[in-house]
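Record format v2
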Amino acid sequence: MSSIKTIPSEKTVRDALTGLLFRNCDLVLGGQVVHSATELATTAEYVDGIGTAAIIVADLSFSAYAGAAIGLVPKGGADDCIDEKQLFPNVKENFDEVLNVLASMFNNPGQPAVRLHKTYGLRELPPNDTLQMSRQTGRRLDLVVDIQGYGKGGISIVLI
Amino acid sequence: MKILIADDSKVMRQIVTRTLRQAGFDGHDVVEAVDGADAFEKVKSESPDLVLSDWNMPNMTGIELLAQLRSTGSKVNFGFVTSETSQEMRDRAESSGALFLIAKPFTPEAFREALEPVIK
């Protein structure tokens, strides 16, 4: 089990996304986001100095909308990413930065620092052990996030 | 005044620039650096009045940048804008000579509070 004591609250996630994207993000509980050969997603692995501490899996829509929103790329650019089932290089680079800053959700006083270790793009399947960890039940939060002015996407936050 | 923004993420450099504007610090010269090594060279060549630096960057980290600047006699105003927000990091930043540490994700208000004493 990782050093992270508790799964971030919905408010923590909403505040982090709203602060990072500079626009309202409404969220509701949703289904588990899965990264597979047929289900395109971005997977981010976070470490705490000992090992994997947390994993975030974001579906294509969330990856595109959040990556576009942080860089003020128009919604149409994100919709094109979704239609073409790929993240354009600037949107991918931007979304990697979103995932980097979201490490702040896992950091609490008195606990080891958690940082982004690696991201896996839409068609870049993570190793099997990472995939298995991302699908475990228990300490996880599955959300649908509506990014104001862009649209809805799914994100799963899993503590190891 | 001239402000040097050091961050390996292009979008984060843009966001810092945008947030400076939203915080009311408009009309300043902004220079960008892609990592600590680039920032070190640009402090020498551009003589900024303030450096806003990320902590984790390739080639030279922000804390290494600050140490190198101080060891070479530079007294440039220096603040961190980073996801590294633990007390240990804050203490290291302060003892190394940083004026403030702004946590990502940040707000214009956080910028205003940290920068008002520095930016005239």
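Chain B touches chain A through 19 residues (CB under 8 Å).
The CA atoms of residues 39 and 45 of chain B lie 10 Å apart.
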